[in-house]
# Entry
Amino acid sequence: MIREKRTLAGILSWIGLGILVAFIFIGITAPLLVPIDQTKALAYPILQPPSPQHWMGTDGIGRDVFARVIWGARTSLEIMAIGALLALVVGFPLGLLSGYAGGRIDRVLVLVMDSIYAFPGLLLAALIAVVIGKGIFNIGIAITVIYIPLYFRVTRNQTLSTREELYVEAARALGARPRTIMLSYIAFNVVIVIPAIFSLSAADTILTAAGLSYLGFGLEIDVPGDWGRDLSDAQRFLGAGIWWTSLFPGLMIILLTVGLSFLGEGLNDIVNPLLRKERA
Amino acid sequence: MLLILLTIVFAVLRIIPGDPVAALFAGRASPEIVALTRHQLGLDQPYWQQYVNYLAQIFTGNLGTSIGESYHGKSVLTIILGKLPGTIELTIGAMIVATTVGIITGVVSGTNRDKPSDVALRLYGTIIFVIPIFWLGQILQLIFAVELGWVPAQLRFSGLPLPAHVTGLYTVDSLLEGSLDKFLVALDHLVLPSLTLGLVLSGFFTKTVRANLLRTVKADYVEAARARGIPEGRIISRYAFKNALIPVITVLGLQFAILFAGAVLTEKTFSWDGMGLLLLNSIDSADYPMVQGIIVVYALIIVGVSVVIDVINGLIDPRVRY
# Structure
């Protein structure tokens, strides 16, 4: 599907996919690429600039920045998977229900979701993270709350327009029960919008997770790679002109989120032909 | 809307499994102190009782007193209002940067459709938006504060005595005082944080302005202007541009939530003394009433802003009616 167009978005979505696959590969093989010992404190002399031994230098407590960055990919992908998947699992059915049922359920759900959506996501996640505690799984949950409204909204809008289609009308006329209509007729036609939303929200998840860690509400201190915390640790040494502890973890965050955004916007163009026409 | 937001804040802080007071103390206090604190805050009462008290407090404008180390016994509202100008100054600075950069890049991009400059600016719009704010802040600090030494990297003010407190916005206060030196100091401190936050937000404006401009240049009245032989540059500036800006106002409103979240990060990166930093410190010092108060104030501001944006939209676009 992507191949048939050679628009900017089409090319970018291939680049994005490539970046994502590369990161998943790095994340899975992290233990083979760099021994976990290099990510621990006092593994090396502190604040060494980048050199052939330490490609990205060492940080303020003697950890190898390259090793931390590689392990960080693993951590980020784990949080992303938990956060974005949970949001999908909760937001999609709610959106389907709200869009199909309409009425009072719909109004209440929309109001609640819009309110959550209006609130600064990072702050809400931080609040939840403080209450339920640190850890990869908990952060995933805290982040989920921000993205449920996104899935909800998109699914609901799509459901609303699908509901009016002729074939749904036909199914209803044939006496199909609402459950059957929702699951067999509507759900599959709504689900096509999900991949684009998934990769865009996944990009945002990475940023939010890094933000939480940066603020100190993220992961336990012994997680072998945590880009946000590494950036937070790097802050103390900025004044001394130590650039490598800041630069590299940030570049990794950007690379992964840019990849996911490219992919998401490309997918968006594919499922949304109207938009494509407008852009082309 | 406001009520729901407040209820969500309440729900997050009270009903989610886990004890916020214990979580805030993070094992640094004995169970007795935790229990005592809970009792003092009325957290051992039934939920409905707490909920009623909570709403009553908010609507009477009394957000309780601080139990943290730095502000112990002081009114939460007073402390928050003291820190609010810092955040406002930062967000205004950031908005100026974001709208200026965003509108210029958006117009350039939209008027040079599919040319290299358009492609480059569209990439800019996508990439700048996903750059972590704190990272951009650190890199800007490294370049402009540490390496070049042009501007200070931290704090809101330094070197001179603070300007007399009128609005709490140091740039405005120093001008009211008639002191150009102080104004420049305040401005110097404001530049990097505003640039950081503003640049990250500008990507969104770039995209919106571009998309709207592309839509308005196809509109009939623009076509008509073109048919009358009005030069293209004038068409863009006089006819298309203004209408392309209307949705930007709406975007501005949507961006406020992101702006506040971003401000918390920026305030930490630059040790900027505002509400965000206060929130972080309050969480660190287990100051439960303060944390709750700050979140409530954020919610109030967000609802307020969305109302204001709706009103402005109605004023500039007569087609919008509520």
